[in-house]
Amino acid sequence: MSEAYPRTSIDIFIEILQSDGGSRCAGITAASLALADAGVPLKEIVAACAVCKIDGKVALDPSDIEDKQGDADLPIAFMPKSGVITLLQMDGSLTEEEFNQALDIGIAACRKISETQVEALKRKYIWVKEQAEEKHEPQKVTD
To answer: Global pTM?
Structure first.
């Protein structure tokens, strides 16, 4: 919703200290959550994950070795409320059936990740509310 911030840019820097695969998807997921947490208006939160094909089987969340040794890699970023895919890239080759299976698995995982993102935001703001209420409770006067 860039119209809320005309002539503005928002830079997001992500530093990966150690990675065993999934850095881009984790970065997309974390950046979306950070923007929401910072109060930047968003149409909705983006969640991302990767699906791969390794040893002839479609699998979710490949490690770095599985990604490099696998037959295919399919990172997906998804907005679950609107059903919009914001990133879809395939390296390697999948049959049409494998592609559809990978896409279904990835979208289901993104939906689950999105639920976790929303719950994390809710927990944070419940905690903030509780802290504010504790500070504003009347003090008991004792003799």
So the answer is: 0.84
Question: CA of 119: how far to CAs of 88, 113, 124, in Å?
Answer: 25, 10, 9
Residue type, 47: A
Measured at the CA of 58, the angle between CA 109 and CA 78, to 5 degrees, comes to 30
Domains in the chain: ranges and CATH: 2-118 (3.30.230.70)
Cα–Cα dist 86/77, whole Å: 5
Q: Which residues contact 124 (CB under 8 A, 6 or more apart)?
A: 37
SS3 96: helix
pLDDT in tens, 103-132: 999 999 999 999 999 999 999 888 888 888
